[in-house]
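Tutorial handout. Part one gives the primary structure; part two gives the three-dimensional structure as tokens.
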Amino acid sequence: MSVDFYFELLSFVLSVVFFKHLKNTTIVLFTPFLFLTVLIEFIGWCYHFFEANYKNYWLFNFFTTIELIFYAYLFSLNFKHIILKKIATYFIPLLMLISILNYTYLQGKEQFHTYTLLFGSFFMVIFCCVYLYELIITDTHYETLFKKPFFWICIGILLFYLGSVIINSLFDYMLLNNLLSRGNNLYLLITRALNILLYSSFSISFILCNRNKKNYYSPL
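Part two.
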């Protein structure tokens, strides 16, 4: 198992431990989502361990789409403006359509779906920036931003997908040129570092939910 898997596992464990503090908020959705994340990663590891030459791109292509849909749904719940809520909601069927078209006509099942991920990453970055803008203009007490659980979730998603836009736009180049860093695939190293940032931000959010007496995020 890679190091980033343990950050994912820690994040899931924290979501379970602090579940009673999450259950009246949108953040409670992270418990089943992170369970699925850990499960997919474990299955992927098993494929790699027992069938080293077997390509399991299909598994992560499926999960990437689910992941983007989940985040878009979260933003649709946490946006304040009704138009933004609708945009995030309409993004979900659009992403599903793009994913199906990519699978059927473009990258198929034998490649990692970088086109779908690039498309989704672009929107995730936009959603994060818009949410942070909404948060800032509606709360003049900037020192409280760091105490808001969904702020940390948003920051984690923003950093992760900003990095994803860059590395996935270069994915084919890295693959063809076998770019390495200290004996490891450079793409994997960067992806794992981004995962560590993402799941660390989730963990901070769950800890804040436990500490805060007042909810700073939208209820379900």
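Part three, for discussion. The beta strands are 180-181, 184-185. The chain has one domain: 3-211.
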